[in-house]
Write a structure and sequence with these properties.
The protein is of the alpha/beta class. The chain folds into two domains: about 180 residues, Rossmann fold (3-Layer(aba) Sandwich); about 45 residues. It contains seven helices and eight strands, in the order βαβααβαβαββββαα. Helix 5 links the parallel strand 4 and strand 5. Helix 4 packs across helix 5. The protein starts with 11 loop residues before the first strand and ends with a helix.
């Protein structure tokens, strides 16, 4: 038996307590000078969000915030986010939060410069090639929960508010340029969010380990991830 595969872990991840302080540097690395921080309504008024906006403001990057994001973000949330992005003259997105904030933030960066409707870019065949790749804004992702994984993904899940179907929107350039993974951001989460997202992380590990599409690094990461959740959740 011979094993053939093309594997990549291309996202730069800055992991460690307190590393949200490095957000201005991450923005500079991604080429942003006027970022829009996109998060969900539940996070908008929490201290971690205010402190992150303080970090941006002190670095001369403003404190622009868009938080009209539902738990299962839809195209209406996206249209409002794109309008806020374009009206504010922003040049990049900081996707901040759990899966909803991360997914919508990535899509704001993706759709802000497109002329075709969102559903034209659903993850079907080569539909992603319809997008103007040069018009996709840079993205820095800052996850605040354990469970999503969206910060290292090239797609977002957006709900069609009319049909109530969840659609996957894919493009390689939706992959964030830099991820800041600061575990201190998770400390203030409510207990049920910690439990739910922790089990979500466990489920992702089980799925990766069980996949018929073998990837040697994923096997090791999945096993270690399951051990960490078992020992520490």
């Amino acid at each position: 038996m011979s094993l053939t595969g093309n594997w990549s872990y291309p996202t730069a991840i800055k992991f460690g307590a307190g590393r949200v302080s490095e957000l201005p540097g991450a923005c500079a690395q991604a080429g942003m000078t006027r970022p829009l921080l996109v998060t969900d309504r539940g996070l908008a008024d929490l201290p971690i969000t205010s402190a992150t906006l303080d970090v941006l403001e002190q670095a001369g990057l403003g404190r622009a915030l868009f938080a009209e994001v539902d738990p299962n973000p839809n195209e209406k949330n996206l249209a409002a986010g794109v309008a806020a992005y374009n009206d504010g003259g922003h040049d990049g997105v900081i996707a901040f939060g759990g899966g909803s904030g991360l997914d919508l933030g990535k899509m704001v960066a993706f759709m802000a410069g497109q002329t075709r409707p969102l559903w034209d870019f659903e993850d079907i065949g080569d539909w992603w090639t319809r997008a103007d790749a040069d018009a996709i804004a840079p993205i820095v992702a800052v996850p605040t929960t354990a469970g999503t994984g969206s910060e290292v993904g090239r797609a977002s899940v957006i709900t069609n508010s009319e049909t109530h179907e969840k659609k996957i929107i894919f493009h390689p350039k939706v992959l964030p340029s830099v991820v800041i993974c600061d575990p201190e951001l998770t400390i203030g989460m409510p207990g049920f969010i910690t439990a739910g997202t922790g089990l979500d992380a466990f489920a992702h590990c089980v799925e990766a380990y069980s996949s018929p599409h073998y990837h040697p690094m994923s096997q090791g990461i999945a096993l270690e991830g399951m051990r960490l959740v078992k020992d520490y959740l």
